[in-house]
Amino acid sequence: MELSIISLILLYYLKRPMGLITVSPEWKRLFNSGMVLAGVLLILASVKIPLISHLATIISFLVAALIVYLVLKNEELHHRKGMIYAWLPIIVINFLGELTLLISPDFYDSWENYFNITEFFAFMWAIVMWINNTKQRKALEAEKLKALQREEKYKITESIKEQLEKQVIERTAELTAQKNDLEKALHDLKATQDQLVHAEKMASLGELTAGIAHEIQNPLNFVNNFSEVSNELLAELKEELEKGNTAEALEIAVDVSSNLEKISHHGKRAESIVKGMLQHSRTNTGEKVETDLNQLADEYLRLSYHGLRAKDKSFTADFKLHADPNLPKIPVIHQDIGRVLLNLINNGFYAAAEKKNQLKEAKDPLAESFIPKVTVETKALKNSVEISIEDNGPGIPAEIQSKIFQPFFTTKPTGKGTGLGLSMSYEIITKGHGGKLSVSSKPGLFTKFIITIPQV
């Protein structure tokens, strides 16, 4: 009877899916038939007619043995081997007990307690093995699930790979057909690029020259004005001396001396501007020299503003320099860093002025109170020096901030820019000086370019 119950249990679990593993419909039909047979045998074994019950018991042995054989020998059922190993001891013990009972009932009666104890331990073994197999099965299912996921990803990857390979082949054929046209276009593009780079350099030179001219004009105007006044005072001095008015002559002489001091001061100012520009031109050899970046930023901030004023008298803006007094001198190429500063500051003034024009065109009430402004700040960091150029212009949209350092990319209208200024500045800072050039902007509020140059 017990073997029939065990057979029913085994057949029930054999036909059920084990996680992701299922048995075929044929096996299910066979197991269902086996369950019916085991049920019939269970009923027959409970009948009090010895012949029928003994026959049912023998057939139950055969059914249990067949189940064990099928699971152990058939690969499709190997996933249930653990369950068979768990119940095999109790099957064997029941088989031996029933066999002993059939052959020698008296012997069985004398050893019945031992058979029961052994059967109890076999049952405990089955429970422990069942629990252990359940844990292993869950771990195996999890691993198989991962394997299936990996396989699915692999299939997807292979499918994408095949599609990409097909696209690559098609694209390669297209590119091969266009090769000659592209080579010609590349040749023309390089020629155009050289022209644009030259135009950008000349534009920078023109802006720098205009700034220098406007900057040097102020001290020269003072020199000319005080020279004319001094000539007039000398004529008056001569007249007073001829009249014998020595007191008046002494007062005039004091004024002349004061004028000469002012002439000397402004002459030296003009001389310092010229010397500074000559020094910058002499250092355009690619060699780095120790440079005061505070002074360089101050000069190019003023040169940029005066250069724009020289080209457009209506241009007005506010500009400030926040210089770090502890900023160390670092080795840089004067002309290159000057070109970068001039380009970024010019862009800042242009953007701020453009915002004011936009406000005027939109008839915004803030147009009159808005003042274009560019702020340059220097800062000493731990192992580097930072220069930031910030304007209060319209800002740069986030979607194009990553493109602004690309060659020929410009946000200015056609004819207003070549798209090489920021690209050249980026090359000078990153490759020429081993530094960084980054941008931070909030549309409608500001744009800030940050230059970071290592101290060594």
From TrEMBL:
Residues 131-202 form a coiled coil. Residues 211-456 form the Histidine kinase domain. Its EC number is 2.7.13.3. Keywords: Coiled coil, Kinase, Membrane, Phosphoprotein, Transferase, Transmembrane, Transmembrane helix. It catalyses: ATP + protein L-histidine = ADP + protein N-phospho-L-histidine. GO terms for molecular function: phosphorelay sensor kinase activity. This is histidine kinase.
